[in-house]
Amino acid sequence: MSLNWPELYFIRHGETNWNAEGRYQGSKDIPLNDIGRGQADLNGRLLRQLFERDGRSPAEFAWHVSPLGRTMETMQRVRAAFEGQLPEAVPDKRLVEVSFGVYEGRLHTELSSGEMAIAGERDADFWFFRPPSGESYEDVSQRIQDFAADKLTAPAVIVAHGGILRILRRLIEDFPADRAVNWFPPQDSVVHFIDGKSVVYPAGHSWDD
């Protein structure tokens, strides 16, 4: 599928207890913890700062969100950084995280000895690895392309998951598969996609220039 990707600002949801414990979360609806709520608040202020720096209005963007609780709360906290009326944030189930099937809730390290390679130790074939009752990155890339063809007709803000961000970097920037599945998506940053490239802006810094 050939897509003309618009400008995107992507924010991964904040930390959950399962993230902190190193558990595969996938499609399980695990809530933010206090650190994650703080990250979401910081990312909202950072997004507002980036818009102000570039003379952009949030009204210029469509707002899309995964319907899981941790992403919905992250989106709510991001939007709280802005004053005035914003476009509706539209949930879309195609933005839900890659499902790890029977491995959801298991520790990364517990599975890395043979059942499923941990990030940092994966080869390119992991892009096609489908856990029992789960999805591969390739599976999810198809639903992300379907979402993009259907919904991404204008610049957009997306709040979703680390796996979705990995997939977008492969689809938009042509990341090699092995690099995409081994990259660690941040929870304290805003990722700006434009013209086939991305810039990762960590929260807590000044990006006025």
Summarize the structure.
This protein has helices at 17-21, 34-53, 69-79, 108-111, 137-151, 162-173, 177-182; strands at residues 8-12, 62-65, 89-91, 156-160, 189-194, 197-202. The chain is α/β, with parallel strands linked by helices and 209 residues long.
Your description of this structure?
The chain has a single domain, classed as Rossmann fold, CATH 3.40.50. It is globular. The protein is an alpha/beta fold. The protein is built from seven helices and six strands, in the order βααβαβααβααββ. The longest helix is centred in the N-terminal third of the chain and has 20 residues, at 34-53. Helix 2 crosses helix 3 (69-79) and helix 5 crosses helix 6. The N and C termini lie far apart (37 Å).
Main traits of this protein?
209 residues, 7 helices, Rossmann fold, alpha/beta, six-stranded mixed beta sheet
Mean pLDDT: 96
How many domains?
Answer: 1
Widest sheet: strand order? 3-2-4-1-5-6
The CATH superfamily is identified as Phosphoglycerate mutase-like
Our Rg estimate from Cα atoms comes to 16 Å
